[in-house]
Structures are given as C-alpha cells and as structure tokens.
Amino acid sequence: RKAKVALEVTDKSFCSTKKLWYFGLKLHALNSHNKDTIPYPESIVISKASESDLAIFKENWSSIESKSFFGDKIYRDEPFFSWLYKEKASVMFTPIRETQGKADCLKNMDRAHKDLFSRAVSTIRQPIESFFNWVNEKTQIQNASKVRSTRGLLVHIFGRLTACFLKPIFNP
Taking every annotated instance into account, which residue ranges of this chain make up the domain Transposase IS4-like (predicted)? Predict the structure, then answer.
C-alpha cells in the first residue's frame, strides 16, 4: 500500500521493536529525569519516519551544554560524542555493544562490567519508554486514520500532545 496524505512530512520506515513497516512520523523527546515518575519533556521534535534518531539528535540537541544524555545503541557515534564532551561538556551514555569477531575469552573478561553498565543505562532509559507509552495510552496519538491533510496531521499530533500535558493540570 502507498500513502496518499501528508507526503511532505511523512514517509515509510521499519519499526524494529514491533517488527513491522509503517508510514508516518516519529516523535522525538528530550526528557528530564524525574525520580519516581515519568520524565517530562524539555523538547519535542517530529521527523519523517525514516530519519535517523542520531541525525535528529545532532540537528536539534547538540548545542546543549553540560548535560548527561541517555540513549539506546543507535546513539553510538564515538567521534561526535567525543566532540560533544570536549566542546559542550555534555556526555551520552548508551548500552555497550558486543564487538563482532572478538575471541570468546576476551568477551567474557569484560562481560560483567559491560552488563552492569548497560543495565544501569537501560534502567535510566526505561522511564523514557514509559513516557512514550503514556502519551499513546492517554491520547491514541498513533491512530491518525481519519487525517486527510498535512495540516490535519499536524493538528492531530500537536492537539493530542497539548491535551496530554494539560490533562494533569486540570485533573490531578
């Protein structure tokens, strides 16, 4: 099937967690960590579905100074994040990837350290995933089947996000 609506802001991509192709947008959020509750977004960006998460990060948040970021494995870009640390005093923590082609004895030597570090990063990242689930649960933002134009899609997205964040104010 081919999409017919909002072609200038949407495209096709593969969702590896759900293992399916979809047509649409991606919602990116830079969230602040809140102990014992879901994180609150400091910044939200919408991109075409096929745009790289790392490219979106570089374009929108690479100028932020003195910040600790926690991302998934897609954010592994040593040269860029070394530059970010030196120039902006910001650091990106990601789970550690297994090195391909490494001897088993060498893999096992580092395993405990890598597993603990990756688990710590994932523990901090888990509320971020909960944030996206919370947004979808409260707003059904992923269900845009009645949208018929680019303008309608943008109203759908930002209207639902607004409702999502205003609801706790009026309904504590």
Answer: 16-164
Q: Is the pTM of this model over 0.90?
A: no
Tens digits of residue pLDDT in 127-153: 988 999 999 999 999 998 889 999 999
* H/E element, 11: strand 11-15
Under 8 Å between Cβ of 160 and 141: yes
How many CA atoms, within 13 angstroms, populate the side-chain half-sphere of residue 10? Answer: 21
Distance CA 75, CA 125 (A): 13
Beta carbons within 10 angstroms of residue 107's beta carbon: 12
Any idea what the Cα angle at residue 152 is, between residues 146 and 154, rounded to 5°?
120
Q: Which residues contact 6 (CB under 8 A, 6 or more apart)?
A: 147, 149, 150, 152, 153
Euclidean distance between CA atoms 5 and 24, whole angstroms: 10
Return the amino acid letter for 23.
Answer: F
* 8 Å CB contact between 151 and 5: no
Helix intervals (H) in the chain: 53-61, 78-88, 104-139, 150-170
